[in-house]
Structures are given as C-alpha cells and as structure tokens.
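Dear H.,

Thanks for agreeing to be a second pair of eyes. The structure we're designing against is below in token form, covering all 1287 positions.
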C-alpha cells in the first residue's frame, strides 16, 4: 500500500514527489509486534458427557460409572449410598487424555470379575483402560490423527463375552481386535480388516450369541460409484462374524432396515434370551433376527397428544438391561426426551413372538442411558444437567402402550408417520411417575455468554454471570468463587464478642464428640450456652468464670473435666470442683491455647507457661516456664494425634514477626526446634496434624496484613519447610481455627471473606477456597445431632451456625464455584448491562437484559392456547393416583423389607419441595409442523436482587431476538437504551428470513421496558449490535451500517457493504470498530467523520470462522473460532496511518485491491478443544490484574493469564517441555500435537499439562525438578501461587 499523499497545496516536482513517496513507504512499513506470552488455566472443567458406561471397575459388586467428557477427560464415579439413605456420585479418578474422545465401551474379559474400558479418540488408537489405583492403559495405533471419516474410531462396540472389539470409521473401514488376558495384562491382537468400499456406517453393536463366534451388527448403506447411474441402495443391517479358528472377519448376513434407522442394540442371546437386535428409527422400533427369514417386527411409539401428526419422532437411544433368571427389558428414548420401556414376549424355545412399547417417563434427551444392577438409571444429557434416577416401578400396566406387528423386510420402507400415528396411543407428558431423581450432576451446557462484575452490590469479589442451557433447561447462572454455605441459625448477642469456642462432651458421655457448650467471650464477660435440642444460656451451674473474657477452653480427657483460661489465670472444673491457677504478680495472660491434655499460656513480656494433665490424678499441673525473647501475640498447642498421648509440638507467634516451633516432649519442654521470619506480624497460628500417620504437620499462620502463610513442619525434627505458600485473603487480619470437613482436618480462615483450606485426597494438594458468605469475625467447630460438621461463628452482634458444602471443592486442580440459577424460558442468546434511573433520582440502577430464542419452537401464547404445561403440573395432578400394586422393579437385592418400605413411601402424594424437585423434569414444548417457527422473549433482571426478573416481554409472530446491546444516542441526552436485533420467520436450511428489525426500548424506573420504535432492516438478518460514538452500529448480513435515532425509526447515516459473509461479532472503541466475520476472521474499520464513511483498515488473512471476540487494547483483539481455537491478533504499527487519504486523490482501484489492506499479525494461537462461545477481559479479584476469561459451549470456564516476568515465562515453558515427554498418554496422543490441532500452538502454555506435575510419581517429579534447578516443593508452590494470583 502506498503512503498517504502530501497535504501541501503546491505540487512538488517529479523527483521530489517520488522521493517523498518512497520515504512515506518506508515509514509505513509495519513493525513486528512484541510477543505476548499467556498461560491457559482451567477454572471450571467441561461438564458435557459424550458417552458413559456402567460397571465394576475397581472392585466386585461396585456401582461405578465411567464418563467420557468433551474436554478429553475420563472420569470414574462411584454410585455412593450414604448412611442417611442419600445417593450421590463420588469422583474416584480423573484421567487427562489430551485428545478428542470418540468412542467408549465396557469390556469384561472371559473369567474376569472386573470391567475394563475400551476407548477410541482422534489419536487413531484403541486404548484399553484398567481403573486400578493408578490407571493402566494398553494402546495400539491403527490410523492417522484427527477425526477423519475414513479413520476408524467413530463407532466402537465389544463382544458381550469380552473376546473382541470392533472399531469402525464413518466410511469404508472397520477393524476387529481380538482381546485376551495373560500374565495379568490385556493383550490386543493384530487388527482384522472388515472394509467395504463406498460404505457409510451409522451405528454398531456387539451381538450376543453365547459362546459362538463373535458377531457385530452394523447399520450401514453403500452409495453408488461416482459415474454409475444406479440408484442408491437401501440402508441395511449387516452381521460381521469373527471366525476365531480362521482368524478372519466376514460379512455373514444383511437385511433391509428403515431409511431413518440410526441406533442399534443387542438382546440377550445364547442361553439367556432370544438374541437378535432392535433398531431405533422414526416413529418406532424394529426387531431383526436371521431366523425370522425375511420378516421384521415393528412396534410404534406412543405419541404426545399435542405434537403435529405430520411430523415423525425419531428414536435416538436404546439400552438393554439384564435381570436375574434370564429376564431383561429395554429402554428407548425419542428425540424429545420421552423414555419408553420395551417388553419382549419370548416363547419357550426362545423366539420373539411380540413386543410392547410403554411410556416410562420424560427425561432430558440423552447421549447415554446406563442402568445399574441395583435399580439406578444414569442419564448423560445432551444439554443441561445429568441425572441419577431410581426406578420405583418397571411394570407399567396403566401407561400408554403400543403393540408390535410383523411385515416383510422388503416393505419396511413403507412404514411411515401416517401409519404410526394411526396405531399410536397418545399421552400428555407429566412429572416423573415411575422414576425419582436422587442426584444431579451439574452441567451448564451449552454456555453461550459470560459477564464478570460485582453487580450484587454487597460482595468483595466479582461474580461470573453465564448464559447456559437450552430450551426448558435454560438458565442464567451466577457463579461465585468458593464453597456454598447453608445458614442454619442466626441469633442476636448482647454485644460484640472477642472470641468463640465450643466444648465437646467427654469420652464417658454417650454424645462423645458432639458440642456440649458454646462459649462466647466478650471484653469483660463470658457467655456460656448449652447445646441440645435448642441452644440456651447456662447460668452459674457451668462453673465457668463469667465475669472475665475467655482466652481458651477445652474438655480434658479422662476425669480431667473442663479447662478455662482467662486473663488472670486458669480454671479447671472437675466433678463440680474448682482448681484455680493465678498469674504471678501483676502479669496477665495475653494469649492461650489448650487441648484435651495440654495448655499453653503466654504472659505479658514474652513468658510462656506450659501445663499438662496428670493421667492418674486428673489434675492440670504447671510443668515449665520459658521466656521466648519477644512478646507473644498468638500460640497453638495443637491437637493430640491418633495413637499419641500428647501433641509433640507447639507454635508460638511473636511480635518480632517470627513464628517458632517448640517441643512438648518430656525433658525437652518448650525447647525451640525451628523458626521462620515473616513479613508481617502474626495474628493467629494453628498446627494441623495429618489424618494418617504419614505426612508432614501443617502450620497455618494468619498475618496482620490480611494474608495467610502455610508451611510444612517435619513430624520428627520440627523443622519448618523452606517453601511456605503465601496467599492474600483480604483487608483484615486473618484468624485461623480448625474444623472438620467430611471427616478430615481442615482450616477455617477469617478475613474480609471466610476461607477454607483442606487437603484434597485425590490429588494430594492443598485447596483453598473462599466461602460464599458474609464476613465473619470469629469461628470454631460445632457438632450436634442435627449438624454433624458445622461452624459456629460471630459476625458483629450476631451468632451464626452454618454448614459448608464441599461438593464443588472436588477435583484437585479445579477451583470451587457455587452456583445460583435463575430459570429462563428459551435458550439465552446474549446479555447486556444497562444503566437506568430508579425511583430515587439521586441513584442510578444497573439492570441486566437477556434476549432468549428457540428455533423450531412455539411462543408462549401459542403454547397456552394449546393447553401445554411445561411443568407437567396439571397432568401430574390428574394422573397422580394411577399406580400399580405389583410393579416394583426386580433389582439385584435381597432386602425385601427395604423394597416394601420404599413402595409405601412412593404411594404418598408428593407434598414437600424436596419431593417436587425429585419429580420435576424438563418437558419440551410441542414441535411446530413446519420450519420457521420461533419462541422468543426479552427479559429484564435485577442483579442486586439475586437476578430477580423485573419484566419479560414475549415476542410473537415467529419473531426471534438474536442480539442486544446498550446504546446512548447523543440526541437522547446520553440516556441508556436497549437495542434488540430480531428476525422473523428465519429458517436454517436454507438460511433466509421474512424480515429483520431493530427494536429500541427505554428502561422506565429501573424495572420496566417501554417500546420506543421498531425499524425494519433490509439486506439480511441482524446478527450483532454495538454502541458507536453516540450512534448504533449494526451488523446486517454482509453489511455494516451506522444509524442515528429518529422520532419514528432509526435513520441510516452510512454503511460498509460487500463484506465476506456475515458480521457475527462486533465491538467498538473510539473511532474504530472491530468485527468478526462468520467465515473470514477479524476485520478492523475506522469511521471518518469528516467524509461520513467507514474504512477498512486491516483484516486477518487466515479464514477463521469467528464465534466470539474480545477487545484487549486499541490494536489487539482476541478471537475464538468454531473449531475450538483461540488467537490473539494485533494491528502492526503504522498500518493505520497508511490507510489515511486526506486529499481524496487515492485511486479507486488501489483502495479496492485486497492486497493493499494491512494484515493483522498473530501474537498467540492455541487449541482449547471446545468451541469458545464468549470471552471477556476482566479480573476475578477486586483490584487484581486482568485476564482473558472465556467460556466454551460445553461449560468450561478458563482464563488466559498474561505473564509479567521473564522468569515466569522461562519456568513454565521449560516445565511444559519436560511434561510433554514425561506426562502419561492414556490414548497415545501427543500433548503438543493436540494443542496444535489446526495451527501450531504459539506463545501459550498449557496449564492443564503443567498441573499434571502434581500427579506424577515422586521419582519423575524429582527428575524434572533437578532439570529445572528447583525442588519439588518449589515447583508445586509456583503452580499454586500462579493460580492464587488469578483468584
């Protein structure tokens, strides 16, 4: 591109002109941008499940589920039944594969009592995974990397007897592997080919034929050759037989199936059943068996009463469950979520004589249905939450039921929707009648938007707002970093306390371990509360000294009674008698600590006195006094470890900014073992012994500057570790106390926010997470009959009893987030913040606007007119009494009394909220008879009031809202208006619409939307909107148009036409606009106000199909494409000035040449593995550095964190390089190749791979640490500090 011409009025000579032009060209040469280095960190893992299977993987008779996640993770969960009868899924193992998982199937080798898992992925390999304490894998490579249509791996099935597996490609290729078990290892034989040219495969399964040669069933179709005139062949069911004697695979048998057949499942065969397969198709299920000759048995599905009779319903999922005594049943699910039970009538000679299909219940559309041997159904949903359900009955005498009929295989294509509707029973979907949800696995899929900000108005850290779900499962989710808290009780106190303690029942009491007293210390008094059915104040009968503050108190073991320490001394209360110890002279106790047999007091001046319990007399005796050399501000005597008679160490924090570890061993009382210097004065200190005999002691120090310090203490020598971990918690001094969580020792840290520190057993690392609760002043452990693991705390003048939910703190490297959900009506598309005036003119209110729309759905008004109830309430009430008397599911359990009790409980009408929640299920609305129907609404929410809906405006006439933004027009005085882009009657194939509009709303009184006007838009659908210099910039198909506000409609000012495809994303800054094209990546434009035109200043030469973008600075844009890549693009220096044309003398053909447009430079690129649907630049900590926060369609929340020092870049780059070699590869996929899926990874470090360092063996960790010239502890600390800096 030539430089800009001179603006001088006089024309220079030719020589001067050429020289000046060359000089301008040199000045306009772009300068390479400075490289940016980023670290990809996973905050919340992907929750979408591609496939799942159920079996016994770690031990016999276990109920375990293996989940294949969309992020390339294999997770093993146990169906865990608690003592109180509740059922949950407990994570046992997580296996990172760094690959795209494609297939998953159970394999139980002959003679084995445990199951294995066969996995295929994009690595072109077959992996056999054995879930033991450390997952073992056996990998065999058979093809190229990538999800190619001709590379096997898309379909995977196993022989029911575990002798072989078949791996199939979408087209042509099939491989069969023989499996055998020898010397404790699974051996995979060489592959046997079963290829067929021009063959498309739809689904496969292993056929159960006893111990005869393994047979695999495939739904496939063979398309004609390119130059052939023959019509397409029919879709067929083919049997492929593996001859174990000849070691050969042949196509044994084939028969025609329905053209819509899409899924296949095998019935039990051999000695257990009739054999054969069932196939799911449109409007029915067909049964096929070679012995039926040319006959096919078809059973239509019951249909919803409100569904269109001209539209077929596809059966998408089949599963077969075996029961005792050769019994079995099948479950089938349709595309709208209705689940049917298929009963098969079998004669004495094991021949199928008929089938009945009865409605079971309505569940979310699933990727997998897994039935356990104990009557549990796991549903891996396509979108929304996954559920674990319990069968309450499986015999369905009153359910709508269809019977089967027989036709010839050659006429199976004649089966159509008209025939199915004529014979189908109808029903109205209701809440769950035969199933009961017992556990929910949260899944915010699909996630379409993210917003970060402190919008609640009364919290310290910002919240993450995400748009998630589809249709009836749609919701707005508010995520807060930390564990959720349940508030159990709140009561007022007479003053502001200075401390709180609990005293447990002694070992002679039947309530041993439970809290007996709550002791609240005030400035000049102590309040003692007894714990029972209620919490009541205790008078003088407690024998506590109530006219002085309490510094520490505890129960003494044996017959020692109770111990209370106050400023003037120590009191022992034993069998109603008092033993007092008074401070010598005028000294007073400043801090103290005690446990069941020891007490430690710190007097003014730095003197420390140690007391120990005499086991014979039960008296607490003074043992030794020692001067610590500095005033003591906090201390802790620790707890007595299991199997020990005393705590061997104590921690003492001094005002000279040191913490000392002293010995409590006999003969070495208060001898200093080690010390550590701090950067601030310690405020609180606690010792935490490991739950088992192995492991180091943890010392947790709370500092006055609002940070905490965690270090290890050697349990033998008492030496403090050299790599303590420091974390900033808040603006207030940190108070530390010990609490139990899930039976394990944990720490409660109180600052501006309460925090929890605990050891994760799965990963072996310490997890710190805040609590989503108000700031607390003091806290300690609380336990009662109703609350086994609770916390009693004070906040101001209130006493609070709370319990901590640790469900979100599992998973090791993943942060704990707790979620509040606001249900929505349709799939959320976009959200924006609006500043509105409230009822009080002096205050401005921030509201949140969300646009929702669903394709192939009806509006709310149409649904109401049809009588559709999305909750199933009316139908449930009508059919609630229809229950069978003899319909319990036959489960593999001998506990008949429990089953009878369960039946009695199930006969009760659901009344409480818990029961209603267990019976609730998402119900999709009636499907329109023809395409082009939409359901849509515009919702206004109040973020300061838990995102309460202020107003919801339903859009009718098949109008759908696709985008929205906040805009301030200069002509309206800068008032914030809501602009919404809509389309009417839009269809996807082909992509067209009846009309498009931009609607303007005004927010009235901060709680209501007022329509200003609608503007009809030509030239395409409105896909994006943005505020731009007091006007509205609109992306309309291939055009970018600028509008000013008029009285009756928007007024067109200027536009940029002829863009590549569709303007998908749009952002503005100053006089620039940045838009992402649906197929041609990012473009930058500038608005020239003097000539009123939009000028393209730069574009990306790579054809990226943009899904999301975020502006990082004036010249830098982050973009995510539909293939799962994130890239950072920057405008080269000087490129913008080269496009200036102040005189208008620039040639038209020069401006039109594509080569003349400056190209954006790629700073970073990285393959996430999931489609990044939205991103935002923000900080997750108040006052922290900004990061690029992104969300993916499968629910992952991640952050791209910029490095701030060269040392960090070198450390993480070297660590990633070593882990690319040393990290395990369960599927054989190279981590670097995975992250470079579409383009080589550039300047982004894989945080998931770096976090795998914690899971390596100690030998490998030591080897890598030596190469990095660091210790293992220093590397772990560096990884943790980086994550802590983000959160």
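And this is the sequence the design step returned. I haven't edited it by hand at all.
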């Amino acid at each position: 591109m030539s430089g800009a011409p001179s603006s001088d009025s006089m024309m220079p000579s030719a020589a001067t002109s050429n020289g000046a032009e060359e000089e301008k060209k040199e000045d306009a040469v772009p300068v390479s941008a400075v490289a940016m280095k980023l670290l990809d960190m996973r905050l919340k893992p992907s929750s979408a499940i591609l496939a799942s299977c159920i079996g016994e993987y770690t031990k016999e008779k276990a109920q375990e589920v293996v989940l294949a996640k969309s992020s390339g993770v294999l997770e093993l969960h146990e169906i865990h039944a608690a003592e109180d009868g509740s059922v949950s899924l407990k994570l046992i193992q997580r296996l990172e594969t760094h690959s795209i998982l494609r297939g998953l199937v159970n394999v139980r080798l002959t003679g084995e009592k445990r199951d294995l898992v066969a996995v295929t992925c994009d690595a072109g390999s077959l992996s056999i995974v054995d879930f033991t304490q450390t997952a073992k894998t056996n990998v065999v490579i058979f093809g190229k990397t990538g999800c190619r249509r001709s590379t096997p791996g898309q379909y995977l099935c196993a022989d029911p007897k575990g002798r072989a597996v078949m791996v199939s490609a979408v087209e042509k290729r099939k491989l069969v592997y023989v499996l055998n078990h020898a010397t404790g290892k699974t051996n995979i034989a060489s592959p046997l080919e079963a290829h067929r040219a021009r063959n498309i495969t739809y689904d496969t399964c292993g056929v159960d034929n006893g111990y005869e040669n393994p047979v695999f069933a495939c739904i496939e179709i063979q398309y004609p050759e390119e130059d052939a005139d023959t019509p397409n062949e029919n879709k067929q069911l083919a049997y492929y037989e593996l001859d174990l004697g000849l070691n050969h695979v042949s196509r044994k048998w084939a028969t025609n199936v329905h053209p819509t057949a899409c899924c296949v499942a095998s019935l039990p065969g051999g000695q257990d059943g009739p054999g054969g397969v069932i196939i799911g198709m449109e409007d029915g299920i067909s049964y096929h068996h070679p012995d039926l000759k040319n006959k096919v048995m078809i059973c239509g599905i019951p249909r919803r009463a409100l569904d269109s009779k001209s539209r077929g319903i596809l059966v998408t999922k089949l599963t077969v469950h075996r029961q005792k005594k050769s019994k079995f049943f099948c479950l089938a699910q349709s595309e709208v979520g209705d689940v049917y039970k298929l009963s098969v009538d079998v004669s004495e000679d094991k021949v199928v004589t008929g089938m009945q299909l009865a409605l079971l219940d309505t569940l979310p559309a699933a990727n997998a249905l897994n039935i356990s041997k104990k009557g549990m159904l796991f549903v891996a949903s396509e979108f929304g939450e996954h559920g674990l359900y319990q069968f309450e009955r499986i015999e369905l005498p009153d359910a709508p039921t269809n019977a089967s009929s027989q036709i010839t295989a050659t006429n199976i294509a004649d089966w159509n929707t008209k025939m199915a509707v004529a014979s189908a029973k109808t029903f109205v979907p209701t809440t769950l009648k035969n199933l009961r949800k017992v556990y929910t696995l949260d899944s915010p899929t699909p996630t379409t938007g993210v917003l970060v900000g402190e919008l609640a108005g009364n919290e310290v850290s910002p919240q993450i707002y995400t748009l998630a779900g589809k249709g009836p499962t749609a919701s707005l989710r508010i995520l807060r970093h930390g564990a959720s808290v349940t508030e159990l009780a709140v009561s007022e106190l007479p003053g502001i306390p200075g401390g709180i303690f609990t005293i447990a029942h002694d070992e002679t009491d039947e309530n041993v371990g439970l809290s007996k007293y709550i002791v609240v210390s005030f400035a000049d008094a102590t309040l003692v509360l007894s714990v029972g059915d209620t919490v009541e104040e205790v008078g003088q009968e407690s024998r506590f000294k109530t006219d002085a503050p309490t510094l520490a108190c505890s129960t003494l073991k044996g017959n020692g009674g109770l111990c209370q320490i106050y400023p003037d001394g120590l009191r022992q209360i034993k069998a109603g008698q008092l033993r007092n110890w008074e401070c010598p002279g005028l000294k007073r106790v400043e801090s103290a600590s005690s446990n069941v047999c020891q007490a430690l007091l710190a007097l003014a001046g730095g003197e420390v006195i140690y007391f120990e319990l005499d086991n014979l007399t039960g008296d607490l005796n003074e043992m030794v006094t020692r001067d610590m050399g500095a005033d003591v501000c906090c201390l802790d005597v620790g707890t007595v470890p299991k199997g020990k008679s005393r705590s061997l160490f104590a921690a003492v924090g001094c005002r000279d900014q040191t913490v000392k570890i002293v010995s409590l061993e006999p003969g070495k009382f208060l001898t200093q073992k080690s010390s550590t210097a701090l950067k601030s004065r310690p405020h609180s200190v606690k010792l935490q012994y490991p739950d088992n005999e192995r492991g180091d002691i943890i010392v947790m120090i709370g500092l006055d500057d609002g940070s905490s310090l965690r270090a290890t203490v050697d349990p033998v020598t008492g030496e403090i570790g050299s790599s303590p971990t420091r974390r900033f918690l808040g603006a207030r001094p940190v108070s530390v106390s010990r609490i139990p969580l899930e039976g394990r020792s944990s720490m409660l840290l109180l600052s501006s926010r309460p925090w929890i520190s605990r050891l994760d057993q799965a990963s072996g690392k310490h997890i710190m997470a805040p609590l989503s609760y108000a700031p607390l002043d003091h806290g300690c452990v609380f336990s009662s009959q109703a609350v086994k693991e609770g916390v009693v705390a004070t906040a101001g003048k209130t006493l609070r009893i709370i319990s901590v939910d640790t469900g979100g703190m599992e998973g090791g490297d993943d942060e704990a987030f707790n979620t509040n959900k606001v249900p929505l009506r349709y799939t959320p598309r976009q959200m924006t913040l609006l500043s509105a005036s409230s009822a009080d003119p002096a205050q401005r209110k921030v509201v949140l606007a969300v646009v929702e729309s669903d394709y192939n759905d009806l509006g709310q008004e149409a649904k109401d007119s049809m009588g559709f109830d999305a909750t199933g309430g009316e139908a449930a009430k009508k059919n609630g009494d229809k229950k069978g008397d003899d319909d319990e599911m036959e489960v593999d359990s001998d506990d008949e009394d429990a089953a009878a009790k369960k039946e009695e409980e199930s006969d009760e009408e659901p009344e409480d909220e818990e029961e209603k929640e267990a019976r609730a299920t998402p119900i999709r609305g009636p499907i329109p008879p023809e395409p082009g129907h939409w359901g849509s609404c515009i919702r206004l929410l109040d973020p300061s009031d838990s995102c309460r809906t202020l107003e919801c405006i339903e859009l009718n006439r098949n109008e759908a809202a696709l985008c929205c933004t906040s805009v301030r027009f200069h002509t309206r005085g800068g008032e914030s208006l809501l602009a919404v882009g809509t389309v009417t009657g839009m269809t996807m194939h082909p992509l067209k619409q009846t009309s498009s509009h931009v609607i303007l709303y005004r927010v009235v009184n901060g709680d209501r939307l007022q329509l200003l006007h609608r503007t009809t838009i030509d030239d395409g659908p409105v896909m994006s909107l943005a505020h731009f210099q007091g006007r509205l910039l609109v992306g309309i198909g291939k055009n970018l148009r600028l509008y000013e506000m008029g009285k009756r409609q928007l007024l067109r000012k200027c536009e940029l036409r002829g863009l590549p495809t569709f303007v998908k994303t749009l952002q503005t800054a100053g006089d620039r606009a940045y838009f992402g094209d649906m197929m041609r990546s990012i473009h930058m434009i500038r608005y020239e106000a003097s000539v009123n035109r939009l000028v393209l200043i730069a574009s990306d030469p790579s054809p990226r199909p943009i899904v999301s973008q975020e502006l990082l600075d004036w010249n830098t844009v982050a973009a995510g494409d539909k293939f799962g890549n994130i890239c950072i693009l920057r405008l080269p220096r000087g490129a913008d000035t080269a496009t200036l044309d102040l005189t208008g003398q620039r040639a038209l053909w020069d401006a039109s040449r594509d080569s003349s447009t400056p190209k954006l430079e790629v700073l970073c690129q990285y393959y996430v593995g999931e489609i990044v649907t939205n991103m935002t630049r923000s900080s997750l900590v108040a006052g922290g550095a900004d990061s690029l926060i992104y969300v993916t369609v499968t629910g992952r929340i991640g952050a791209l964190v910029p490095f701030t020092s060269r040392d960090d870049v070198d450390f993480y780059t070297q660590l990633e390089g070593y882990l690319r070699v040393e990290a395990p590869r369960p599927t054989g996929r190279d981590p670097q190749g995975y992250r470079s899926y579409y383009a080589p990874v550039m300047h982004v470090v894989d945080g998931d791979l770096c976090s795998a360092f914690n899971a390596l063996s100690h030998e490998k960790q030591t080897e890598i640490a030596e190469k990095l010239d660091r210790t293992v502890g220093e590397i772990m600390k560096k990884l943790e500090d980086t994550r802590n800096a983000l959160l």
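Two observations from my side: Confidence is low (pLDDT under 50) at residues 1-33, 874-910, 1142-1152. The domain at 453-480+816-863+920-1058 is CATH 2.130.10.10 (Methylamine Dehydrogenase; Chain H).

Warmly,
E.
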